[in-house]
Design goal:
By secondary structure, the protein is of the alpha/beta class. The chain has four helices and seven strands; from the N terminus they run E-H-E-H-E-E-H-H-E-E-E. The protein has a seven-stranded mixed beta sheet, with helices on one face. The longest helix has 15 residues. The termini are close together.
Amino acid sequence: MPSLTLEIPTLAALPTAARQLATALAESGQTIVTFVGEMGAGKTTLIRALCAELGVHDDVSSPTFALVNEYRTGRNEPIYHFDFYRVDSEEEAARLGAAEYFYSGYLCLVEWPSRITGLLPSQRLLVELSVTGPESRQLSITSEQ
């Protein structure tokens, strides 16, 4: 998959960006999506919009303290949403069973992947979210091998 860059002029444009991300995800065939961006860039907000695009009706929120939240798509398939911000080490994440989720074949949306890089499969999508203004963002989607 070639790299894709999207400009998000306002928060109101997030659903359109999420739709394009869902398309890129389907075309890539990847089940692991890592989200990178500074604190407050909108990673969880983008994940919420992506989940809505995939038919999730659950409340999508950051699993900062729970490590992982599970949602169900419109086809009743699980989506696992991780936030590794508060994880101290890869060993801690491994003890909590993170790798089992990653190799489950189901969609895994991972915030703060740099904290557990060694546990992630080598093939994944990287979504980088950059703040470009008070409400504007730039979204870059790249396939990692």
